[in-house]
TrEMBL record:
This is SMP-30/Gluconolactonase/LRE-like region-containing protein. Residues 18-251 form the SMP-30/Gluconolactonase/LRE-like region domain. PANTHER family: BLR2277 PROTEIN (PTHR47572:SF5), LIPOPROTEIN-RELATED (PTHR47572). Gene3D superfamilies: TolB, C-terminal domain.
Amino acid sequence: MDVITCRGAKICSPLVASDGSIYYVSAGTGEVFQYQPPDTHAPVVFSGGEPLGAQFDHQGRLHLADCGHAAILRVDDAVEPCVMVKTYEERAFRGPSDIAFAQDNTLFFTDSGPLGETTLEKPRGSVFCIASSPSGGQVLRPLVMECLAYPWGIAVSPDNGALFVTETMKNRIVRLHQRPSNAYHASVFYQFSGGMGPSGIACGADGTLYVGHYDFSGGNTSHGKISIIGSDGILKQTLKIPGPEITGLCLRYSC
């Protein structure tokens, strides 16, 4: 296991570009850094807010889920973050937390607000998508509206037929299965126990899920864990890693 000491504060949402370059988000400083071994950390964009998630679309454009701005931002050619969307039907978002793209560049994101905003008592988190419309523009629509207890990470299945969302405060993974096209049906895919709940999530090419767990450091909690779950919903393996406060994960494939 290699350990990289990152710059910034409140590190989260590692991501990999199409060329294999590694990036990560510094939510505490509002920056995204590019990492190049052995020890180069170059800031690539400053949002001025609190980005919690970041992802490249299939054209290589960087998008940010910025909780501070309560908006989805897209970085333009001048490396400036611009607001892509920040309201739904004139209602402000609570604060987006993660982003994922389908193969057709449909953008999916979770809207949870700051930690504690959506809870077991008040499950008000949502999942949205931004998709192409028949008229040639884009349309924003909710897939799950104001009923999730802190939806955090989001991943798309390899066949684009399902979304997987980590619902942290209920300690579970919710699957949104698409059938027919553009109709999503939500169900519990996997229920965990112990700790606070799942945070980051990534889906492998074979449909295997890799799920990071978040728990407060201190006390009896000295390590973190990543659960590896098959496409059939069966737990295959649990990896232990240093530190329990996992705030994101990603996969990089060998060439």
